[in-house]
């Protein structure tokens, strides 16, 4: 406990020194009305030491507004205003007004380009030797400063407060926002993330200071001596890095901490000699290898850092770079697997290429314990599997795209990548010479020609067979029609009855046998067509007939629904010779199977599309509802069968009628 006051004293001393350095050296004040222009010789305002400059700097085809460190060979940009705004054209002017800095393009005056000073109180501005650009009021009180709005860099005397973040640049020459961020979290932890990641921050951080749960007042500070540290009431002082170069006479050392374009947070020192020479030294890096940065290489590519700290990005076998000149953008698969499900077994179209010592950070859609060779086969036979990762007895299968991939000798895992036969270009598979390619092509053409010829012959023979069979059936039907024996005709054709005939045959609908969704079943007899023989008959009527209700066009939907269910199940609406009594009445049995999720019983061992089967069953059940109001129109029934209209879950057809 006694060490805490000592640390706090050290902290106060460090902060006081940095604050003094940051707020001095503004004697060369910039007065109101001063301006910079992209066309004139004066494009920037220099600090007293002439190490920093604020103003326009070339960026692409235009200009950007920012602060840069003036080196002997190049400019090191430390702050940029409105990083993602359009570039400034060549006829722009930046003027200091009472509202702050205003940008004019030609004769048009736009709003303040950087944050406006409150209440029009700007009196002057200054570019300090600390690298901070400030706006003052008439009492020399700071109204606004760039140190409060860091981009990708903090300088000596600058803080990264709780809740603030820095965002990397795209590259050294492009200061627009990149893909990595460094956040001073509200729990006291300093963490680096991949920008715009869909993962939660806790699972996506690829580097952190390990100071979580240290309080909400923790901030990051870089002092003028090159000490980079975290500090807070509960945390005390946690030094992350410090400069290894002591102050020397006639040598000016300027320190900066930058979240670089590769996602690594680094501490730099710039040494300016008295002879105007300068040099730069990397004092510290948050990560030793770029491959440890999540997202350093784009999607579906991997960072190969084996034996190299630069970690070049590579594509998986069967993949190509999106942009060969910028390999950090990722890769895409140079073939389509859309035919996997409809072109036969996947193993006939694809094969597996293995890569050792590789890992990625996505979540698998399937993870099963199995042997290594079984994992290979499982991915090959799975249309959803693009790659599989085997390690520690677990087979993890993934879909594309793959993220956060890296290779390392310290990773003991094997990746199985699925590629089609023609697109394999991997070191583990020998590359075919140019003389082999034409032979393979000729072989494929020959196989395709033989296959297509055989199919054409079979189709021709089948067409001839169908024509002869059709003519034979027509001849049999004509012969049957010419036969005067109506008893046989009744076995093959349907006979229509009038209502009076049915009423007489059933003795006024006297004996009711049962009820189904198609209507009520009555027992009746009709005279035979030959002699006095009588035949027992079973009929069904819609509920409207029994209730003497209004007969609408919905009555025809009944017949359509029953016929539809009979077609689906390949049986009549009433069957006596069935295994169980539940199957006698077709409509009741179909509804029971539908509610139990056992539609396969309706088609037995036939190979059908169960999505289409379920849709047809639901349409049929809607059509045979006892309540006519619940039955769909024929137009809607057709649309539901075509799949262009959703089919809701039908109620029980028998219980749908409510009689008031």
Automatic annotation (TrEMBL):
rRNA-binding is among the record's keywords: no
A Pfam cross-reference name: S_locus_glycop
Protein origin, superkingdom: Eukaryota
One GO BP annotation of this record: recognition of pollen
InterPro entries: Bulb-type_lectin_dom, Bulb-type_lectin_dom_sf, G-type_lectin_kinases/EP1-like, Kinase-like_dom_sf, S_locus_glycoprot_dom
Gene3D superfamilies registered for this protein in UniProt: Bulb-type lectin domain, Phosphorylase Kinase, domain 1, Transferase(Phosphotransferase) domain 1
Residue ranges annotated for the Bulb-type lectin domain, each copy included: 27-148, 151-280
Signal peptide span: 1-22
Keywords: Disulfide bond, Glycoprotein, Membrane, Signal, Transmembrane, Transmembrane helix
Transmembrane feature ranges: 443-468
PANTHER family in alphabetical order: G-TYPE LECTIN S-RECEPTOR-LIKE SERINE/THREONINE-PROTEIN KINASE SD2-5, RECEPTOR-LIKE SERINE_THREONINE-PROTEIN KINASE
Protein name: Bulb-type lectin domain-containing protein
Lineage of producing organism: Eukaryota, Viridiplantae, Streptophyta, Embryophyta, Tracheophyta
């Amino acid at each position: 406990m006694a060490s805490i006051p000592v640390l706090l004293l050290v902290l106060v001393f460090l902060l006081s020194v940095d604050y003094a350095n940051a707020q001095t050296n503004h004697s060369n004040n910039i007065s109101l009305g001063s301006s910079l222009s992209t066309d004139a010789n004066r494009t920037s305002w220099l600090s007293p030491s002439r190490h920093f400059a604020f103003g326009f700097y070339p960026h692409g085809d235009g200009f950007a507004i920012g602060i840069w460190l003036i080196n002997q060979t190049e400019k090191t940009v430390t702050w940029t205003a409105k990083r993602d705004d359009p570039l400034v054209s060549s006829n722009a002017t930046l003027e200091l007004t009472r509202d702050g800095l205003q940008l004019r393009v030609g004769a048009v005056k736009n709003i303040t380009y950087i944050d406006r000073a409150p209440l029009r109180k700007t009196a002057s501005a200054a570019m300090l030797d600390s690298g901070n650009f400030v706006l003052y009021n008439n009492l020399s009180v700071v109204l606004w400063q760039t140190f409060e709005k860091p981009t990708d860099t903090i300088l000596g005397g600058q803080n990264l407060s709780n809740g603030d973040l820095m965002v990397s640049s795209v590259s050294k020459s492009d200061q627009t926002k990149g893909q990595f961020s460094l956040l001073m979290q509200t729990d006291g932890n300093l963490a680096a993330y991949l920008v715009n990641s869909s993962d939660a921050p806790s699972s996506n951080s690829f580097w952190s200071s390990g100071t979580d749960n240290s309080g909400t007042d923790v901030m990051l500070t870089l002092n003028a001596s090159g000490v980079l540290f975290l500090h807070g009431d509960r945390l005390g002082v946690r030094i992350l890095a410090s400069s290894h170069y002591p102050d020397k006479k006639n040598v000016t050392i300027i320190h900066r901490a930058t979240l670089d374009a590769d996602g690594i947070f680094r501490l730099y020192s710039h040494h300016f000699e008295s002879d105007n020479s300068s040099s730069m030294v990397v004092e510290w890096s948050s990560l030793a290898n770029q491959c440890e940065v999540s997202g350093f290489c784009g999607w579906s590519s991997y960072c190969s850092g084996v034996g190299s700290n630069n970690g070049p990005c590579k594509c998986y076998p069967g993949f190509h770079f999106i942009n060969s000149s910028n390999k950090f953008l990722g890769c895409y698969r140079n073939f389509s697997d859309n035919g996997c499900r409809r072109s036969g077994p996947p193993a006939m179209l694809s094969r597996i290429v293995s890569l050792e010592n590789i890992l990625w950070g996505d979540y698998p859609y399937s993870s099963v314990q199995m042997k290594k060779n079984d994992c290979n086969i499982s991915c090959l036979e799975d249309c959803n599997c693009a790659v599989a990762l085997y390690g520690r007895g677990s087979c993890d299968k993934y879909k594309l795209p793959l993220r956060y991939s890296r290779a390392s000798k310290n990773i003991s895992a094997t990746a199985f990548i699925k590629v089609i036969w023609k697109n394999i270009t991997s070191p583990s598979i020998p590359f075919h010479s140019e003389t082999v390619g034409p032979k393979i092509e000729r072989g494929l053409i020959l196989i395709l020609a033989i296959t297509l010829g055989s199919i054409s012959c079979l189709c021709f023979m089948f067409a001839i067979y169908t024509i002869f069979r059709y003519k034979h059936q027509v001849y049999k039907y004509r012969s049957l029609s010419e036969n005067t024996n109506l008893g046989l005709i009744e076995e093959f054709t349907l006979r229509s009855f009038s209502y009076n005939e049915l009423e007489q045959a059933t003795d006024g609908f006297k004996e009711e046998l049962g009820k189904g969704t198609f209507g009520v079943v009555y027992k009746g007899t009709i005279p035979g067509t030959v002699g006095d023989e009588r035949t027992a008959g079973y009929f069904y009527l819609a509920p409207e007939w029994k209730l003497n209700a209004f007969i609408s066009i919905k009555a025809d939907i009944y017949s359509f629904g029953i016929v539809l269910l009979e077609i689906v199940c390949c049986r009549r609406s009433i069957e006596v010779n069935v295994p169980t009594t539940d199957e006698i009445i077709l409509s009741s049995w179909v509804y029971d199977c539908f509610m139990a999720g056992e539609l396969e019983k309706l088609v037995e061992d036939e190979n059908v599309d169960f999505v289409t089967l379920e849709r047809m069953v639901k349409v049929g059940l809607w059509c045979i509802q006892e309540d006519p109001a619940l039955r769909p129109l024929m137009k809607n029934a057709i649309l539901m069968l075509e799949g262009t209209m959703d089919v809701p879950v039908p109620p029980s057809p028998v219980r749908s009628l409510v009689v008031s």
